[in-house]
Write a structure and sequence with these properties.
about 0% strand, single chain, mainly alpha, about 100 residues
């Protein structure tokens, strides 16, 4: 009998508790603060070149990154080709 009363009490009380935790009113209106959303901004010191900020443009940095990445990939492919060639000739992988 106690279980039935507890279940009935939960069925009556919990929907009101859960509804109280929502962010809408009974009329379906969303409440807001009327303030713009927060946005991150770089401090002026970090944008100043005299304080050590990067002087290059994003295009120059992208080109430098691409050339570095292309060089690393070329070296890796060359090492892999040598390893496969030696494995084909000798049947054993390279021991480092």
């Amino acid at each position: 009998m106690t279980r039935i009363l507890v279940a009935l009490g939960c069925l009556l009380a919990l929907p009101q508790v859960v509804a109280a935790q929502s962010d809408t009113t009974g009329l379906g209106l969303r409440l807001g603060f009327g303030q713009p959303t927060l946005q991150l901004e770089y401090p002026a010191v970090l944008r100043a070149p005299w304080m050590g900020a990067p002087r290059s443009t994003p295009a120059i940095r992208l080109a430098a990154f691409d050339s570095t990445l292309a060089e690393a990939l070329a070296q890796d492919r060359a090492r892999r080709a040598v390893g496969l060639r030696l494995a084909t000739l000798y049947g054993t992988p390279i021991q480092r």
